[in-house]
Amino acid sequence: MRQQTSDKKWFDQLVIELRLRQEHGSAIGDTVASARELLGDTGQQAEEAFGPARDYAAALELPSAPRNDWVRDALWPSLLGLLAFLLFNQAVVSWTRSELLLVSPAQLALLATPVVLVAFLPLYLDAVIRRIWVCIGISGICALAGILSAFAAPDDRAEAWLAIDPVPWLIGSALVMVALSVRNTARSSLSTDDEIIDPRSRTADTTGTGARVLVQVTNWLFPLLALVMLGLAVALR
Amino acid sequence: MEVSAADPRVAAGIEWPSDWLRATLGFLALRALSAGPSYGYAIISELERHGFGTIKGGTLYPLLTRYETAGLVTTEWRAGEGGPGRKYFALTDQGRSELTRLGGDWERFVETSVQYLDPARSTEGTSA
């Protein structure tokens, strides 16, 4: 049982390392299946036969997808969604109070913090995945910036750097969030996703109902959170 | 056992320096495939049976993957007998040529080394 557990952990790490190296799903499936085949023959533990998963993934030198593919396909849309969500949050409070949307430079800088952190994610993605404290730290900074931005919001028009009608921003940001969610849902339902294929059965790694629901929740995360914010703003006005 | 600088090979009572195996494993693996397509464990067993020690999967598979990328071997998954399939590696014509070339080079290298290490033996061979 302990061997199975440690092997499962090793294979999970191997898949993560290969994904981080932008390997294709079919190549990852092949690597995993051939490693399992040898372990089945020798009875060895994965670590014993192949060494650390990270070193083995590097040693394979598999042909990989261009590194900027995920930036174009996943990071930029996520960044746009985050930006739209932050704009929505600012506009919705003003809209429910029938006030102008007032913005100060400090507030803008604090709101830009999570956007900048996400934009530079490719530079430190490995650290976020491998070290939980980096992930917690980045999340904490984003949350703190959001909270501080509420305190930095100007109380009246004289303090504001910008005073704008919130309705166009509210509608525009909502439309952007919904459009991105529809796009992500369409992409995740297409079979062209780079799934890990087991070469022995030519089937993709099966994902359960829970995982499929999680993917859809992730696709619609910003619109769902925006609805919660809208509800809170209406309730607390 | 793993091919590493700090871990010399042991085969048939002889310790092979790991550097030697690292240098030769490439064409030894090609040689193991010269009789026909084979799979990971069979290649490891073949090399072990011929006195090269136990090669680890973490050493063999990256090598074969590089050879596949270089066009020296092809791979094919075949259905297993009552079990999961096996990944078979087969030499291509290019791989066979590379084996012939590397094998010839290695023979010349060994001959040169022997002549240098034991000139008397080399002279005996010439005079005989």
TrEMBL record, chain A:
Bilayer-crossing regions: 74-93, 105-125, 132-154, 160-182, 217-236
Keywords for the protein's UniProt record, in alphabetical order: Membrane, Transmembrane, Transmembrane helix
Q: What is this protein called?
A: Uncharacterized protein
Whose protein is this, by species? Arthrobacter agilis
Automatic annotation (TrEMBL), chain B:
Transcription regulator PadR N-terminal domain segment(s): 30-100
* Annotated SUPFAM superfamilies: Winged helix' DNA-binding domain
Name of a matching Pfam family = PadR
Record-linked InterPro entries: Metal_resp_DNA-bind_regulator, Tscrpt_reg_PadR_N, WH-like_DNA-bd_sf, WH_DNA-bd_sf
**Entry superkingdom:** Bacteria
Transmembrane stretches, by residue range? none
Gene3D superfamilies linked:
Winged helix-like DNA-binding domain superfamily/Winged helix DNA-binding domain (1.10.10.10)
Q: Which PANTHER family match?
A: PADR-FAMILY TRANSCRIPTIONAL REGULATOR, TRANSCRIPTIONAL REGULATOR RV3488
State the name under which the record lists this protein. Answer: PadR family transcriptional regulator
The species is Arthrobacter agilis
